[in-house]
């Protein structure tokens, strides 16, 4: 099941909408989100593992996958389904050695060169960033647009999850470009109703 709707958490974004992350994740799971990535850039390790453990109980209940951003130790500590790493994180081969053959590894790539340098790695999916302009992440490199995404999907031997500025209005175009799935932050975390937002995105995906 390497496809579907993929929620990436952002506590700040959720907080601005008046939500806690456990609330957002439970609502999104209730509405059928398939993937949840815990992404914490400033939390202490203690806070990170406690949040991850709490979200694991929720995703497990609903049958969604739980992926941990950057931190192999946190993923192991809570027995998450996998780890998502970027170009500056622990190299994928080392991650694989630590987490074993059965866990999921996702790798972010920002361009074709990074996709090519992933050739031969024991990863399971690609995160293709950044498709559209987004206010959620500051340090995004150049935008892929739909054309750049299409080229990455064509050349990737792994399923591609697109990320960056994806919302109801452009989800279908992203999937038509060849993405196996779409990853969103603000479209769910920042929505007044994470449940309704997820339901709408899921309907578009299936429609
Ligand atoms: N990586 C590339 S863009 C991005 C991440 C984590 C944030 C995407 O957020 P949004 O709100 O879905 O545009
Ligand atoms: Mg990272």
UniProtKB/TrEMBL annotation:
The residues listed in the UniProt record as binding 2-[(2R,5Z)-2-carboxy-4-methylthiazol-5(2H)-ylidene]ethyl phosphate, with positions renumbered to this chain, are 134-136, 165, 185-186
**Any signal peptide, and if so, which residues?**
none
The alphabetical list of record keywords is:
Magnesium, Metal-binding, Thiamine biosynthesis, Transferase
Give the EC number(s) under which this enzyme is classified.
Answer: 2.5.1.3
InterPro entries according to UniProt: Aldolase_TIM (IPR013785), ThiamineP_synth_sf (IPR036206), ThiamineP_synth_TenI (IPR022998), TMP_synthase (IPR034291)
Q: How is the cofactor bound?
A: Binds 1 Mg(2+) ion per subunit.
- Write down the CDD domains for this protein, in alphabetical order: TMP_TenI
What is its pathway?
Cofactor biosynthesis; thiamine diphosphate biosynthesis; thiamine phosphate from 4-amino-2-methyl-5-diphosphomethylpyrimidine and 4-methyl-5-(2-phosphoethyl)-thiazole: step 1/1
Any one GO MF term held by the record is: thiamine-phosphate diphosphorylase activity
Q: What does this protein do?
A: Condenses 4-methyl-5-(beta-hydroxyethyl)thiazole monophosphate (THZ-P) and 2-methyl-4-amino-5-hydroxymethyl pyrimidine pyrophosphate (HMP-PP) to form thiamine monophosphate (TMP).
The similarity annotation says: Belongs to the thiamine-phosphate synthase family.
Would you tell me the protein name for this molecule?
Answer: Thiamine-phosphate synthase
The species is: Larkinella bovis
This protein's gene is called thiE
